[in-house]
Amino acid sequence: xxxxxxxxxxDEANIxxxxxxxxxxxxxxxxxxEDGMQxxxxxxxxxxxxxxxxIMMPRLNGYEATKQIRSLKNRPNAVTIxxxxxxxxxxxxxxxxxxxxxMNAHIAKPLVMEEVIKVISVNLN
Length: 125
Prior knowledge:
With 125 residues, the protein is of the alpha/beta class.
């Protein structure tokens, strides 16, 4: 069985660390980006099975990064790769904004890791 590749995008190193450790324990290969610009660059050059994307980040926020990823012409899965919002903003309008930017799902912080893995799994299948 091929290991699934997960990209974690968050400007908070401690959030990336927690998600990374838990995801690796669950069998995922994990890459990290500390902002949306770095995430877009990684997606241009590497294949991922799923992306967990923070919304509020410096340089390029999660909404704009998602729009840029979705528009990448040279990446066959850029349109279909599951992108999951991960944010403290959990109101209905925040969830709607995530979906409108091209994201597939929305996870609220503080994170419940079992829920994060469940949302990843549902979006991979």
